[in-house]
Amino acid sequence: MDRVTAQDVARRAGVAASTVSRALNQPGRINEQTRERILAAARELGYGAPARRSERRGLVALLVPDVTNPFYFDIIRSTQEQLRTAGYMQLLIDTGESGRTEAEVLAQLEGVVDGAILSATRLDSDALRDAATRLPLAVINRRHEHIPSVLIDIRVGLIQAIEHLRALGHRRIAFVSGPPESWQNRWRWKEFEEQVTGQGLEPVLVGPYPPNLTGGAAAADALLVTGATACLTFNDLLAIGILQRLRRKGVSVPDDLSVVGCDDIFGSAFCDPPLTTIAGDVQQAGRIAATRLLGVLNHTVTEGLATSLVPTHLLVRESTGPAAR
């Protein structure tokens, strides 16, 4: 028996699939007459009824952009543990930092898995909404009003980082940008720019670069001609690549340039010098995302789809110091 989707309900009720999502998860955002028509269509088609055991596949996919990035290790572990406890097996897929690959994989997963968790998705909002009408989804490090989402909220950690650099005398601070397709990257730059200018300092945008060690090496060369005395990077891999490249060029960190990363991945404390970085509870983000997806799969979700926020803080290590004079 084919699984009834939100699109089927939308066609029966004569509305958009996104309207079906709001009617079922955010009833306060839709008029009562339309909602009743959607609920009637859902009942007629059997949408929302718990799947019979024989219809469940017991599989949930986890999609990550780069499985070699240590940031995803804790997400892989925490989602897997949460899903296993609920009787599901996790299928891990590396999408290679490609939104196109991600979309193709999601299409291939229809009818194969019960749902999917997307960590740092490269899909835009419309593509995500479309995918969610065909397969239950949850997303990590992304906001979306129609899909269960978890965001590691860098804002507190970012404020602490900018205040830390300002206290050290830095006035021109660069943001080393990651992949342009990343919603998270664009959001981090926006928050960075607001915080830096809000404290009377000068922001500089460098990049975009691939969010890996090679990208960091290229970013290091660009940083040296910006006049910035400090930088904050999209992620720790970029920061570590910068540290390695600057060391080879004979540029001292933090004497000549202070470097702040983001994510506190395994290894960031063992760099030379150890990396100052913005840290959040990545395992908690994975557990929340898995729990919220399970709520959708088990039809036990009763609250709206507001994004769950995981707070962050600054870890000060040896890669930051007084501005060069």
From TrEMBL:
Keywords: DNA-binding, Transcription, Transcription regulation. Gene3D superfamilies: 3.40.50.2300, lambda repressor-like DNA-binding domains. Pfam families: LacI, Peripla_BP_3. SUPFAM superfamilies: lambda repressor-like DNA-binding domains (SSF47413), Periplasmic binding protein-like I (SSF53822). It comes from Microbacterium aurantiacum. GO terms for molecular function: DNA-binding transcription factor activity; transcription cis-regulatory region binding. It comes from the Bacteria. The keyword Transcription applies. This is LacI family transcriptional regulator. Residues 4-57 form the HTH lacI-type domain. InterPro entries: HTH_LacI (IPR000843), LacI/GalR-like_sensor (IPR046335), Lambda_DNA-bd_dom_sf (IPR010982), Peripla_BP_I (IPR028082).
